[in-house]
Amino acid sequence: MKKISKFFIFLALGALIFDITVAKAAVRPTNATVSQEIIDKRCNLVNSKISLLITRYENNKQRHILKYEKIKERMIGINKILKSRGCDTSKVENDYQKLDTMIVEFSKEYNNFINLLKTTQNYVCGKSQGDYLKSLNQARQQLIIVRQKSLDIRNFWQGTIRQDLIQLKEQCKNMLTPTNTQ
Question: Can you give the CATH number for the domain in which 106 is found?
């Protein structure tokens, strides 16, 4: 009888230990669920950062376009003043046309960049087999092009248009001031 009672005591203890172990395993998440939770958090973080980048770049585009439009308005105003004084403004008008086409190209390239960034949001996080990275790298390459277009506009303004306006202003000054001939 003692053997049977010892057997049942060990069996009860074994069942109790087994129940405690199973209960702990049910309460404690497995490594797979913890890994999946980490992946989901990272995916949400990446998606929110991309959304923030898209918003930031759209705002930057608007800011650039407004700045370029102000430059064009200034050129028109200066051109009108110099033309009213009788100066030959054909060179400045040609510069204006070139600047306008450069701004249109810049805007088009910037739109392409933003669209490439938006396509990265179409891929399912962790299941795109590298398509996400390809799209992101394409967007990075497009950003390089956009920055170069912006730099080209800036250099054209500073190097060409400004110099042409200064030369035209000097020519008009010489036309309006009487020269002393003795």
Answer: 1.20.120
